[in-house]
């Protein structure tokens, strides 16, 4: 089984679409799960996942060989999803202003939602050193716990629920 970089090199050097297809199939599941956690919307997650893989194809020639493809996908997914959420918030703000519907105004005094907690968790993962981040991504998102040599100690964070 070829590693991610071998597949990406084959896609770049030989323009082998099947190499990129295999790379997409390898990462599509966990990436979709991560995006659903962040966006809380299956259809938006599918759309953002497609944008992330398109971005990978576009930027594949400029990626450095020491970049972990899974980590790059996770970071790119967070950034594209955040952009998507900003657009949604902006659209909802203008729709709210146009309709002046008090039911649509958000109460900032409420406890954090699951989406906010997931965003905090994703931010914490993104702030970890790359080696620890890769171990967590492989274990919890890709379900491949035995493939990474690093043992990670996870501290328990308390979130208000």
The second-level CATH architecture of one domain is Orthogonal Bundle
User: Beta-strand level of the residues, as a percent range?
Assistant: under 5%
SSE string, helix = H, strand = E? HHHHHH
CATH superfamily of one domain: RNA polymerase sigma factor, region 2, helix turn helix motif
* Low-pLDDT windows of residues: 147-161
Structural class: mainly alpha
How many helices does DSSP assign? Answer: 6
CATH top level class name of one domain = Mainly Alpha
Oligomer, anyone? single chain
Determine the CATH topology of one domain: Rna Polymerase Sigma Factor, Chain: A
What level of helicity do the residues show? 55-70%
User: How many beta strands in the DSSP annotation?
Assistant: 0
How would you explain this protein's 3D organization?
The protein is mainly α. It has a domain at 4-110: Rna Polymerase Sigma Factor, Chain: A. 68% of the residues lie in helices and 0% in strands. The chain is built from 6 helices and no strands. It has helices at 4-14, 17-39, 42-59, 69-99, 114-127, 130-141. Helix 2 crosses helix 3 and helix 2 (17-39) crosses helix 4 (69-99). The longest helix has 31 residues, at 69-99. The N and C termini lie far apart (43 Å). Mean pLDDT is 80; it is low at 147-161.
Task: Provide the fold topology.
Blueprint: H1 4-14, H2 17-39, H3 42-59, H4 69-99, H5 114-127, H6 130-141
Helix pairs in contact: 1-2, 2-3, 2-4, 3-4
